[in-house]
Write a structure and sequence with these properties.
single chain; 317 residues; mainly alpha; Serine Threonine Protein Phosphatase 5, Tetratricopeptide repeat; 17 helices; 2 strands; 2% strand
Length: 317
């Protein structure tokens, strides 16, 4: 009798027994969403959030955020302050999107007091967690190339080689600092030792476009010193380590016979590997190569590639 009374009190106060692990509850929420039961989706995510699930915390934040009211119909009453609290909890639990949203709300002063230093801290966290938009936002908010480069160097020191790739590109392009290929090479060499796909891809790019080392160690771009054999080597190595850019470059080179002997099967193979890594452009190219046809495959497979490209958001011009 006491147990039934206790249960009734908890139910009336809105408490829910969280049966199952946080991942099980989160999965139940995802299934409820697919079934169109948004109330159950919210409750399952709330239960998973109570157990610290980062993506469930993020979903609860989205559901409470007035900005996303049309996308997340439950709960009906929105609360920007509570949404911010859940965004922050999701960020602290390791959600890169939660970190980005927390930084953005600190930047805008929505759901919390405007706080630029805290915004920068959370954008840094989002960057280190791999958020694709964090780098540009962080640089704009810092407003200082030296500070941003210093942050990237700190990331490299913590073995974040995506930062090594980005810093190398900054030094190659010379857009926000003076171009310095020697410094770019040092960044890339750090990533190369760790088999970082992005760094290996940029290394291949440099060999493809050519560079020259002077006796005193200064490196400059020089088209006459292009080394296509090494470029292909690094592109292949980058592809094996997950770089879709490298695989797509190889696919295009072999398709067009650009700097290498034309080979449609090798071209298709590289695009297919990239497609398997969820690259929409590569999926489209696989479908196109079957349709033309550059390679002999079942037409239904070509349609599958084309549909996957669309699902991944790629729309050919």
């Amino acid at each position: 009798m006491k147990y039934l009374l206790f249960t009734a009190i908890l139910t009336l106060t809105g408490y829910s027994f969280c049966q199952g692990t946080s991942q099980e509850l989160y999965n139940k929420g995802q299934q409820a969403w697919e079934n169109g039961d948004y109330k159950l989706w919210y409750q399952n995510n709330l239960d998973a959030a109570q157990k610290g699930h980062p993506e469930a915390l993020l979903n609860v934040a989205f559901a409470l955020d007035p900005y996303f009211s049309k996308r997340f119909p439950f709960p009906v009453e929105k609360d920007a302050v509570k949404a911010f609290e859940f965004y922050k909890k999701s960020a602290d639990a390791g959600s890169r999107e939660g970190a980005y949203m927390t930084g953005d709300l600190y930047r805008l002063g929505e759901g919390t007091t405007k706080n630029v230093p805290e915004a920068i801290n959370y954008f840094k966290k989002a960057y280190e967690l791999g958020h694709p938009k964090a780098a540009n936002t962080l640089y704009q908010l810092m407003g200082n190339a030296d500070d941003y480069i210093g942050f990237l160097q700190e990331c490299i020191g913590r073995k974040n080689y995506a930062a090594a790739e980005e810093l190398a590109i900054i030094y190659i392009s010379g857009e926000i600092v003076q171009a310095d290929i020697s410094k770019a090479m040092k960044c890339l060499e750090a990533g190369e030792k760790a088999n970082h796909g992005g760094c290996l891809y940029v290394m291949g790019y440099l060999y493809r476009n050519g560079f020259k080392k002077s006796p005193d160690g200064i490196v400059t771009l020089n088209n006459e010193d292009a080394d296509i054999e090494k470029a292909v080597y690094y592109y292949n190595l980058a592809g094996k380590n997950g770089s879709t850019n490298a695989l797509n470059n190889l696919g295009e080179m072999y398709l067009q016979g650009m700097e290498v002997k034309q080979d449609f099967e090798l071209s298709f193979s590289n695009f297919e590997k990239s497609c398997n890594l969820e690259n929409g452009y590569a999926c489209y190219m696989c479908g196109m190569m079957i349709a033309v046809p550059y390679v002999t495959r079942d037409a239904s497979l070509g349609e599958e590639f084309s549909q996957k490209a669309i699902k991944l958001g790629y729309q050919p011009e």
